[in-house]
Amino acid sequence: MRSLEDIRDEYEFLDGDERYRLLIELGRELDAMPEALKTEATKVRGCSASVWVYPTPRDDGRLHFLADSNAAITKGIVALVLAAVQDRPAAEVAATDIAGALEPFDLKNQLSSNRTQGVPNMIALIRETAARLAT
């Protein structure tokens, strides 16, 4: 997965439709999430599209998230969120200001409100899960 900084550098260079294409591309780059993990327990509430996020703890204490969405741009937003925390120690993920890390992307002004309405819930789910696994 690309670093959030690399994505931001590319994103800032693009405009309008090109930014949408980048988000779609990011979504395609996510690791495949097995259908069996797409359950009510892994579903993010409050998203206009269906979004699932599943943490896979590593032996070294790092978290690798599997995620998917049934909408291409939403899946790209999911990938953007994960780029802020992917493969980092659980305690670090729990302490990360993910919303702050995403501010340079100005998603609220770049995308429709129903595309971004579930982002706070996704961030909360990721941070709460990480905090639970860090203990």
From TrEMBL:
| Protein name, UniProt field | SufE family protein
Which InterPro entries does this UniProt record tie to the protein?
A: Fe-S_metab-assoc_dom
Which family is it part of?
A: Belongs to the SufE family.
| Record domain Fe-S metabolism associated: where | 14-128
Source organism per entry reads: Novosphingobium piscinae
